[in-house]
Structure formats: C-alpha cells, structure tokens
C-alpha cells in the first residue's frame, strides 16, 4: 500500500511539473509561426525531454547592426564523447522538424535542430507590402535584405547556437538535405574550424548539379503527364483559365494566412503556371488540386472577375507557406552558392 501511495505521488508530481512547463512557454514577439511553434514545443520538444531556447543574432550579420533576430533551437543531449550533430532541413521556407528520423537513428548522439531565420519558431521574415508600379526601384534594396536570410546568414546563426550549447572551440557535425546541403556547403567554406565532419544530400553535395536538376525536372514532367492523363478535364479547364487571364491581371499572394510578412504580386499567365507546375509535379498534391478545381471553377466563376480572382487565390492557398517560395527560387537562388 505504501508503494502504491508513493507511485501515485510521483505520478501526480510528474503531471503537475509537465503542466507547469507547458503553461510557462513564452514565445518571442516576432516568431514566424507562433501557433505551429507552440504546438511543436508542447507536443514534441517537452515530451521528448529536449532542451530548447533562442539565441540572438543580428539580421545584418556582416555589420552587426539593425534588427536582432531570435533563432530557435531544440537540443537532445547525448553522449559527450560523441560529436554532436546539427541537422538542417530543406526549403527554403520550412521549419526544422527532422527530430523523428534523426533521434531514432542516433539515440546516443547529441542532436540540434535549428529553425532557419525567417521560419518556424525563429523570427519572421521582414514585413513588406506589395510594390506598386511606381515603386519598382525598391525591389533591389528588398532583395539585398532578403539575401541576409539565405545560407550565409543561417550559418552565422548556427555558429551562435554552437557556441551557446558547446563552447567557443567545440566542434560538431553538420548534416543537411536539399537546401540544407547548400547550408552545409556554405558552412564548410565559412567556418571549417567548427566542423568535425559535414554531410550533405542534394544539390550542395553533387559535383554536377545540372545533371541532378535535369533528372528532377524530367521526373516532374512525368508526374504532370500522369496527372493530366488521369484528369483530362482539368487540363481543358486550366487552358480555359489561362485564356481568360490577361497580362495586367494580378493577384497578391501572402506567405502566411492572415499575415502580411511577405506579399508577392503575380501577374498574367504566371498566376496559373507556378501553382499548376507545383501541384501537378508532386503526386501528394494531385487529389486535393483536382477536387479544388472541380468544386470551385464553374461557368459562373469564370465570368465574374472578383470570384475568379478569389478562386485563383484558393489554388495558391493549397500550397500554404510555399506560396512565396517561387519568389525565393527565382530571385535568390544565385546567392545560395
């Protein structure tokens, strides 16, 4: 009986401690995705006994001036005799949620998952409104600012996390996938002294990335062909939509639902071409894209400009946070290498 009572007290204490920890979670004001971040910390980080926190780093890491960013990390402590591993996910435009794969395959290794600046639990991207026709000159200054959120900036953030968790002279292993492999490549060039090893999978790890890119495009085209073979009515519908869209027909797309952190204005045929390419090139999107087209694009919508624009935005909303990713790739890819 005494043992049962002790177990009950232990269980109650554990539950109270867990509830207290959840209640005390306080996020920085400018977190990119506060709801997703809070859920991630409550349902993944705390239950798995990960440590978590934020480090400060300047948006302009070159001059160490301007906006101060909060960079989030989740940390699973392991054997101190094994080099810790920092994992970088693909993107850009995604939070780092690779814990399930990494923690199970490396149970004794210290693991660090860092949300890239502008994503997840880290500080959001700069907030801009859509550019009018008379303000196109501002695009260059905006591009220069967004350049600070690519691989060089992310590597400098990782250095701050490394120093905080392991010390100024400690080394770790950096591993990355897709865009994360570009970050790994950048890390090797900027801070080789901080690395015990570096692993990459994707463009950054391939000597001839052109061949890889060509194969990937061919794969996407094959998936598009399969989509239109299965849904020929969608092909006819999309062609009718493109005929209706004129050069000056524009839609403003936000990267976040009910937020204005990035607003990109797409005009002309690109309104259909970009989401159509993404949604037909990946099989996981096929059913949802088909259902949306057949449910929302009826003859009445096609002739009403306001409804038509609303339904076009709906196509983009299927992509969620990927809505502005074409902007990253088309404008900034040259800065990744």
List keywords for this structure.
337 residues, alpha/beta, Rossmann fold, six-stranded mixed sheet, two-stranded antiparallel ribbon, 8 strands, 49% helix
Task: Write a brief structural summary.
This protein has a 6-stranded mixed β-sheet with strand order 1-2-4-3-5-6, with helices on both faces. A two-stranded antiparallel sheet has the order 7-8. The protein contains 13 helices and 8 strands. Helices cover 49% and strands 16% of the residues.
Tell me about this structure.
It contains 13 helices and 8 strands. By secondary structure, the protein is an alpha/beta fold. The strands form 2 sheets. The protein has a 6-stranded mixed beta sheet with strand order 1-2-4-3-5-6, sandwiched between helices. It is globular. The N and C termini lie far apart (66 Å).
């Amino acid at each position: 009986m005494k043992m049962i009572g002790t177990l009950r007290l232990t269980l109650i204490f554990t539950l109270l401690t867990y509830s207290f920890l959840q209640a005390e979670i306080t996020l920085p004001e400018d977190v990119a995705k506060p709801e997703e971040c809070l859920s991630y910390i409550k349902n993944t980080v705390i239950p798995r006994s990960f440590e978590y926190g934020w480090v400060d780093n300047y948006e302009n890491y070159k001059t160490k001036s301007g906006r101060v960013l909060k960079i989030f990390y989740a940390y699973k402590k392991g054997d101190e005799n094994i080099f810790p591993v920092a994992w970088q996910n693909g993107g850009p435009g995604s939070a780092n949620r690779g814990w399930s794969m990494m923690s199970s395959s490396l149970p004794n290794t210290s693991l660090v998952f860092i949300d890239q600046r502008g994503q997840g639990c880290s500080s959001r991207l700069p907030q801009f409104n859509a550019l009018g026709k008379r303000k196109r000159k501002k695009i260059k200054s905006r591009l220069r600012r967004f350049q600070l959120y690519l691989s060089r900036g992310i590597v400098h953030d990782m250095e701050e996390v490394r120093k905080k968790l392991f010390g100024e002279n400690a080394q770790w292993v950096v591993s990355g996938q897709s865009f994360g492999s570009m970050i790994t490549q950048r890390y090797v060039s900027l801070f080789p002294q901080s690395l015990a090893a570096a692993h990459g999978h994707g463009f950054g790890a391939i000597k001839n990335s052109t061949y890889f890119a060509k194969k990937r495009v061919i794969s996407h085209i094959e998936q598009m062909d399969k989509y239109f073979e299965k849904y020929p009515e969608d092909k006819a519908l999309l062609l009718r939509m493109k005929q209706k869209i004129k050069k000056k027909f524009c839609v403003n797309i936000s990267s976040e639902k009910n937020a204005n952190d990035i607003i990109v204005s797409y005009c002309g045929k690109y309104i259909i071409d970009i989401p159509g390419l993404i949604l037909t090139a990946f099989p996981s999107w096929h059913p949802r894209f088909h259902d949306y087209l057949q449910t929302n694009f009826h003859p009445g919508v096609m002739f009403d400009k306001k409804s038509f624009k609303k339904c076009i935005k709906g196509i983009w909303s299927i992509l969620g946070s990927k809505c502005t990713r074409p902007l990253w790739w088309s404008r900034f890819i040259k800065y990744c290498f």
